[in-house]
Structures are given as C-alpha cells and as structure tokens.
Design brief:
Helix content: 25-40%
Largest sheet: 10 strands, mixed
Number of strands: 10
Structural class: alpha+beta
Oligomer: single chain
C-alpha cells in the first residue's frame, strides 16, 4: 500500500514487497534486453571485425585435439636443456623423454622425422599432433618402437592410445 494515499502500488502486494509476478516479468524483460544487445554486438563485430577464416579453422581443429580423459606425460629430459654439448657436433638430434606413471616415451627429433620407443613395450597407437594439419598416425611395433618420416614443422605433441588409457605429451617446438 502506498502510505501517502492508501491505495496498492503497481507491482506490490499489500505490504510494500514486489510480487513474484512483477519480479519475474522484470527479470524476463531484462534477460530479453540483454539477449538483444548481445545479438546486436555480435552482428556489429561480424561486420566491423570479422574472425578470419583460417583462425576459425585453427580454433575448431585445436578444440578437436583436446582429450578430456587423457593423462599428461611430463617432460623429464630434453637434450636442449639437460644434455652436455658434444665437441664437433653441430646438428645433434634432439632427445626427449616423457613419463606418465610407469609409462616412458623416448623420442629423437631429427630433420628427417621422429624415432622413438614406448616402455614398457606393448600395443599402442601413436599420433603426432601438430598445428592445423590432421594428426599423423604412427605404427608401434611389438618392442614399442616407432618411426615418423615427417619431421614436425612447428609445435607438436604425441598422443598415445594404449588398451586402457590415453596419454598426451606436452606441446614442444621441434
């Protein structure tokens, strides 16, 4: 009630509180106004500052590379950081070791590709992940050895699929 004139106020029940109907109507109007403003801003951004097609494709492919159930293999050795230089060797291959629990992956990165071994040996599928291109599958033999003839041309990671789990290495530059 309006204390000045004794009549009920619009949107109020008798004790000065706004009714639930008035609150839900106001909330609905506000949500609709917010949605309209958001859509107008989205359209303006699409016209004035569109996302380049290649960037949109990169985002889609990066999202496709994610693996929510994958364990991350930790980099435990990198010859660029941990090894002592050898005199007379100018183009030594990069040696990497990743570890996830009892699983170890040793990788040698050269200009010709990747050579590596999964320990303990067992059946596994490996994919070399890199940039916007598709993941390149690599065959693992019974001793856990694998070879990729294509050298990584930028940042890369390995995704290992064993019979029970998925393991992804950290992303590194070749």
């Amino acid at each position: 009630m309006n204390k000045d004139n004794g009549f009920p106020c619009d949107g109020a029940d008798g004790d000065g509180e706004e009714s639930a109907d008035a609150l839900s109507a106001d909330a609905l109007l506000e949500a609709t106004a917010d949605a309209l403003l958001e859509e107008e801003l989205r359209q303006a951004a699409a016209v004035l500052d569109p996302v380049p097609g290649f960037l949109r494709q990169l985002a889609i492919e990066a999202y496709a590379l994610r693996d929510l159930d994958a364990r991350i293999a930790e980099l435990t050795f990198d010859s660029l950081v941990d090894a002592l230089p050898v005199r007379g060797v100018t183009d030594a291959p990069r040696m990497l070791t990743f570890r996830a629990g009892a699983l170890t992956v040793d990788v040698e990165v050269t200009g010709e590709g990747l050579i590596g071994q999964v320990l303990p040996p067992g059946s596994a599928r490996i994919e070399v992940l890199g940039g916007p291109g598709a993941a390149r599958p690599v065959t693992v033999d019974t001793l856990g050895r694998f070879i990729s003839d294509a050298p990584p041309s930028g940042p890369f990671a390995l995704r290992l699929r064993t019979g029970t789990e998925v393991i992804v290495t950290e992303w590194l530059r070749a």
